[in-house]
Amino acid sequence: MPSAPAVQRFPSFGSGSGRAIGALAAAASATVSSTLEHLRASSQQAPPAEPPPPPYEPTAAHGAPPSGGRPAAVTAVSQEGPPPEYTAIPVGAFDPRDLTEFQLDELVHRIIDRVTRLVRAELRMDRERIGRLRDPRA
Prior knowledge:
Layout: H1 16-43, H2 72-80, H3 101-130
């Protein structure tokens, strides 16, 4: 005669194990409560007040304006003359606007090839990750 399969049952509320779980829960709750009370009491204590910093008073050595009202550095620069003209590209530096059509085409292909290779690698890794090794579009 075959033996009956073993059946596991949850503890019922009438058994003694339910009271043990309740006692454990009450003990854990009391422990957490006492810990939180200890932390709450220590965090409510105000730290000692520090005196406010002294007010700011500029000194003559640190850039206080002279009696004329303007700082000395601004006055000296304005007497030298206007600044040099703005140039977008320094003289003698590489200017991308000077590229020929062939050079520009070659540069674009180099960039596009690298980006395409990276995108394809990312797509392949995603397909490997989800378990589909073939591209469904092909």
